Amino acid sequence: MIFGAVVAALLVAVGGCAAEVPAPTPNAATAKTCRSLVSALPQIVDQQRHREVEPASDFTAAWGHPAITLACGVTKPAGMNAASKCWEVNGVGWYAEERDSDIRYTTLGRTALVQVTVPNKYTPQANALVDLAAPIKSQVPVVRTCV
């Protein structure tokens, strides 16, 4: 009886290893771009290994504990507008939102909005963006450069 409880507890613990990342619902053209991006992502970001996400999606990815997360095909953040400050990291423009426990970055000037959330544990948080710049540049076309 005790053995069964221990096994059940271990299964719950192992099943809980996936990072929770809300799955975006992009339109067909954006979905194609996002699938290409996600398939081109590195296995390691900011020295953190790739991990599974829940719910499973073609548009999300995660690395490390706590999770650095990526979602492609997201909607524009409420505070992002034409006057928003654009931070460029390795040729990719980002809008940054500092929150309580993380910084959420959203690409600017690309055909698909890509959002990367980096917990405060990882400093500087922009290191994750360095590792993600090449696949974003190669898979998500630029419409307007960061100004």
UniProtKB/TrEMBL annotation:
Signal sequence annotation: 1-19
UniProt entry keywords in alphabetical sequence: Signal
Highest taxon of the lineage: Bacteria
A Pfam family recorded for this sequence: DUF3515
Name assigned to this protein: DUF3515 domain-containing protein
